[in-house]
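Quick illustration, no need to memorize.
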Amino acid sequence: MARKPGSPPTSHAPAVDHDVIRELAKLLEETGLTEIEFERDGVSIRVARHSNAPAARARAAEVPVAPTVTVPVDPAQHPGAVASPMVGTAYLGPAPGARPFVEVGSRVKAGEPLIIIEAMKTMNQIPAPRSGTVIQILIEDGQPVEYGAPLMIIE
């Protein structure tokens, strides 16, 4: 247990709440997470587990098979993510009210326009970096975007 940086020092150390630690450890086991942190009143508790592969395999043999839970993947970490090359306002089509360049399910070829990003009153077409199918569009028309922000995913 650690005092959060910036919190005022206390004259006595807070008591360790073993029930909270047990609940956090139980939550780690139930969710398959490797680390969890809880903070209350300037005191944080971090519970982590580091398993090695043989122990995990042995444990898997003992545990009955449960339904798998799919955890959403961070779009920025997806190998098909198309990141914004600049800061600006993203537009899905060539003009207001016009049909978007691409939609979910669209097949694209490398170099075809995907969106337009307006930066400093200049309209910049953002081309497809690779050929594939658009499986997800992560922005709305007219949405501000940051450099490196995921715009869409092409597989």
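Residues 53-63 have pLDDT under 50 and may be disordered.
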